[in-house]
Amino acid sequence: MNGIKGVLYREMRVLKSRIYRNILASSVSPLLFLLAFGYGIGRNSSVGQTGYIDFLIPGLIAMTSMNQSYGISSDINISRFYFKTFDEYLLAPVGRWEIITGEVIYGIIKGLIPVIIILIYGYIAGMRHIPSLMIVPALLIHLIIFSLLGIAVALKVKNHGDQFAVNAFVITPMIFLSGTFYPVDKMPLVVKYLAHIFPMTYTTSLIRGSVIGIETQYLVNFGISALIAAVLFWICMRIMRGMEP
Amino acid sequence: MLIEAVDLVKKFDKKAAVDGISLSVEAGESVALLGPNGAGKTTTVNMLTGLSNPTAGKILYNGKVFDSSDNTIKREIGVVPQHNNVDRDLTVEENLIVHCKLFGIKDIQKAVQDALDFSGLADHKDKTADKLSGGMKRRLVISRALLHKPKVLFLDEPTTGLDASVRRTLWSFIRSINKTHGCTVIMTTHYIEEAEMLSDRVIIMDNGKIAAEGKTKELKDSIGKFALDIYKENEIETIHFPTRHDAIAALENITTEARIREVTLEDVYLKITGRRIDA
Asked: Do residues B210 and B257 both lie within one domain?
């Protein structure tokens, strides 16, 4: 467990030194989306029996927490390519799974910061629902998946440019096609099928279900998400085993 | 034998960065891998420390085969990379604590205090690492590598980019690690003077191969003890002699500017490879 302790200590110290910047980043973007989508477009709309603000807030939680936990890829990237601090982990007598686990826990903690901020926004904006306890496993699996995805991308890319390409071609389309702002089943057939490629479709559904209680396939979505997390962990381990400076 | 590398090869795509080298290091020795940039020194150190796996060949520590997943052997190794890989957002003390945690050091407070005292950074322990000078960062990286009391310390170009006075301070620092603490030291350098000052034995590398190896004096004596530099229009011709007397005798027949000096490792490198080390 030394690897987990070492990685986590390091990452938490870095997070502490950047905490205000982090809170600001977690606050501004969801506020803008809330203003644009919640007030600009959907103020008097509803999705089924649910008011649009209540529908939107879980989507914003999923999107912003995903951005934060996936964002550890940039931190790892910088520590790999510029400061070479990642080599310290590779030289230490620790299992590679410990390094991955330490980074995932960091990703979860980082991803939880915006959840509280967005819930506060939600209640100020008039959200009526109170999240059930099911939000805990829903958020956990969501943040585990995107921390692992962040690690896999960070370890696989060969430079910072590649990282931007992944963000542009995978992460951004995923945000818009995974039911963050609109229900997936209201989308055109092709997009509906495409949405099911993205893990965020399942985790957004889980988070929304635990906040506003319209999830009918909680166990199925949780199972698929857990499977995705397991596959991503296996991919991370494979990349880590062959990793060289 | 503490470390033994047998027929090590490391290829990137199809190009061999290290091309079938074999070397051995005894416990307590101080060995320098000397060669120009691109000679394969860092790649060799990366393989010996488990940071990268060889394409072919094997590495043994105390007769036991080593690979990058062998955590028992990794505990005995300290590494000072070429790049000052300190966490700039973390304080000096926090940088040391990260290493303690990764290596499972029990008494972290004592280990950190010892490292701060040894490196002379005790007064700077609360400064973030980005506020340190180049020499201080280097001392931090070296003392961090010693926190877990490794049996062997690898230093990759320990003084590159530092000015002459800082370099000399670091030399005494590195010498004390080997001579006082009895830690085996393996370093890479492209500075002739550094290799001569800090090592008992030098391994000269060129194009991924070992061009020569031996004690500094033996290597120099193998080509002669004195060198006569003859300054010609566009070049310096160097001739080596076994004694100063022979060099003086040769000087008497030369009409252009010339000088006699002691043979250096640069002469050895030039003689073996046909190039200067900084070429």
From this structure: no
